[in-house]
Structure formats: C-alpha cells, structure tokens
Amino acid sequence: MTDYPSSHDTSLQDVDLGALRDRIDSLDQQILDLISERAACAQQVAHVKLAEDPHALFYRPEREAQVLKRIMALNQGPLPGEEMARLFREIMSACLALEKPVRAAYLGPEGTFTQQAALKHFGDSAVCKPLPAIDEVFREVEAGAANYGVVPVENSTEGVVNHTLDSFMDTSLRICGEVVLRIHHHLLVGSNTRRDKVSRIYSHSQSLAQCRKWLDAHYPHAERVAVSSNAEAAKRVKSEWHTAAIAGDMAARLYDLERLEEKIEDMPDNSTRFLIIGNHDVPSSGEDKTSLVASMRNQPGALHDLLEPFHRHHVDMTRLESRPSRHGLWNYVFFIDFKGHQDEPRVQAALKEVRQRAADVRVLGSYPVGVL
Ligand SMILES: C=C(O[C@@H]1C=C(C(=O)O)C=C[C@H]1O)C(=O)O
Q1: Which of 137, 217, 257, 264 is least enclosed, having the fewest CB within 10 Å?
Q2: CB 176 near ligand 1, within 6 Å
Q3: Residues in domain Chorismate mutase (predicted)?
Q4: What are the backbone angles phi and psi of residue 292, rounded to the nearest 5°?
Q5: Cβ neighbours of residue 23 closer than 8 Å, sequence gap 6 or more
Q6: pLDDT(9) > 90
Q7: What's the CA gap between 336 and 293, in Å, rounded?
Q8: Using a 6 Å cutoff on CB, does residue 95 contact ligand 1?
C-alpha cells in the first residue's frame, strides 16, 4: 500500500510542480521573515525584563506553556497539533538562546529517556548536561551551575522514583515543570550483530520487565542481562556480535544502532513522568499542578485527616506517595500532587487547613501541566 499519487492519477496530472515549488519558496521567505521578527521581539522582551531586574529570568515556564497551548488550539491542520507545538517549541528555544541558552542538568548518561525529556521540555537550543545520579542533578542546580534539572519521578525504572522523592526532603529547590514522555522500547542491533544468533539481550531491569511477554514470545532462549541504563545497554551492543539491546530512540541514534523490532513494550501506553527542578516559584499558567510534602505522626486516621481538606475544598488530587521519613522525627512523609496553583484561593484554603493538621508541610512548587 502506498499513499503517493501514481502517474495515472488524472487529478494530479495537470499540477504544475514548478509553480508549487515557487509557492513554497515564497512561503518559506515569509516564514523566515516572521520567525526573525518573532526572535527580535523576544529579544526586546529580554531587554525589558533586564531593565526591571538585572537578575531577571529570561525563561518563563508558564508563558511557554501558554504559547504552546494556544498554538495547539489555533492549529487547523493538516499538521497535527502536537507536531505544530513541537516546531514552536524549537522556535522558542532558539529565540531564548539568542539572549542566554537555558542550562539544564539531567540524569544521564546520554541517550536515556531523561535526556529525551530534557530536549522535549527545553528544545534543542538548551545546553543539557548529563550527570550520573539524581542527587548530583539537585546539587548542580542548588550550586547555580545549571538553571534547571530534569529527573524522573513516576518512573517505570525501579527505584528512581524514591531517589527523586528523597532528594526533595533535603532541598529548597522548587518544581518548575513536568514532562510526560511516551516510552517506546525497540530491539536494537549493531552492524556487526549476527541477527539470527542473538543469544543475549541487555537493558535496564525495568525495561526488560516491560517487554517480558514480547521477549518470552520472540526470544525465549536469549539470556536477559540487566545493566545500569538503556543507554549503557546500547553502548555494549556496539562492540559485541551476538547481543541486542532494548532501548529508546535517543540511544539508537546516539550509538547508530538499527531497530530490529519497534515498540516492543507489552503495554502500549507506557509513559514516564519527569520533573523540572529550579530555584524559583512559577506564576500561574492557567492550567497548573501543585506538589507538596507533608510529615505526619504515625497515628490512626492521620492520613484521612491530612487529605480531608482537599476533598472539602474541591481540590483534585492526582497522586499520593508515602515514604518513610529519613529524619526520625516523624514516621512518614507523604508526597501529594493536586490540580491547581498555590495562588488560587480554593487551594490556599485547603493548604491552610492541611498545615494545621500535619507536623510539617512544604509546597514543592506549582507548575504548568505538561503540554507536549
Ligand atoms: C519572550 C519571552 O521570554 C521567553 C521566550 C518566550 C518565547 O519565545 O515566546 C516565552 C517565554 C520565555 O521563556 C516572554 O517572557 O514573553
């Protein structure tokens, strides 16, 4: 099956290819002029911000979320809204880099899904740096070496969620954004791989788990070897003959591997959520989420008491996670996400009551709901 018009297609026979290309050239000229005008405008915004405050932040997560959402709402096709927003994401990233590129640290190594999340959020013009551990990403932002950090939070990768949550207990950094990434796993091989003799498959333990049924059906006899990351799996395959890796697009591209089979994850809507951490509060974008951490004494009904004000003030909770306290003072800490911004009266009313009931409450940040 092909969607390309055939030479027998009478409706297209009279189309003048030359004229169409002239039209495209003229449209490109207009797009070029408009993007340049937009970039000059963004530069002026930066100058206004600097005049008001010499330490002003050029990057505004809430404004960027609004721009992308507006583009998706205005878009009438034929390109899908997400594709159009992706193009505008890159235009904004380039405009911002004219003044000062955003510096973002992420949980590496290169080629992981966290790098993909960083690129999705900040665009290609940001300067992104891989770091080997989640607490190092936090430290890099605390030290001011990076403006933002990108860490997985609700991750299909085991253990990672807890590391991120635990890091929030010891930091004053704020959550400035979230990114949700659809996770697609591919079976990757190198140019040297003997495809009919794959006897070992590398990946992160959680990715192996997410593709277990597919592996049982297609490679029941291959040894499954868990390594530290999907990118590490891809790297190993490069130099071995009888092995394949399960990893994503970034790793395939980075190590120049071929996708022997695509989208082999057992659950088709497999996705991971990442947080953007920074050192400032983000104003409301109109569609926001808030995350907080609360410490409770371990007594009957404590959790019910903590959550009840959210229910009464019609604040919609989206996540609840509990972790043992590391400070010994309180038995448990709860991480709570809900819809809304901490500046909204409804949210403030709920928070005021929650503060009276919990031993300690810290709002980790209000931030725009992930757009792309
Ligand atoms: C232009 C601005 O600054 C930055 C660039 C943006 C853009 O190119 O649209 C949007 C938000 C900021 O990250 C602004 O705040 O409006």
Answers
A1: 217
A2: no
A3: 11-103
A4: -140, 160
A5: none
A6: no
A7: 6
A8: yes
**Model pLDDT for residues 264-293, shown as the tens digit of each residue:** 999 888 889 999 999 999 999 999 999 999
Task: Name every residue whose Cβ is closer than 8 Å to that of residue 255 and which is 6 or more positions away in sequence.
Answer: 111, 188, 190, 231, 234, 235, 237, 238
What is the H or E stretch that residue 337 is in? strand 332-339
Cβ neighbours of 181 (radius 10 Å):
20
Which residue blocks in the chain are alpha helix, DSSP H?
10-13, 17-52, 61-74, 81-99, 113-122, 134-142, 160-169, 205-210, 212-218, 230-238, 249-254, 302-312, 345-357
Ligand 1 and 122: CB distance under 6 A: no
pLDDT of 1 above 80: no
Both tokens of 6, joined, read 């055939």
**Residue corresponding to tokens 């404004």:** 63
- For residue 159, pLDDT over 50 is answered with no
**Rounded CA separation 351/357 (Å):** 10
- State the average pLDDT over residues 138-166: 83
Gap from CA of 96 to ligand 1 centroid (Å): 7
Please give the domain boundaries of the chain with CATH numbers for all domains. 24-97 (1.20.59.10), 101-183+271-277 (3.40.190.10), 186-261 (3.40.190.10), 281-368 (3.30.70.260)
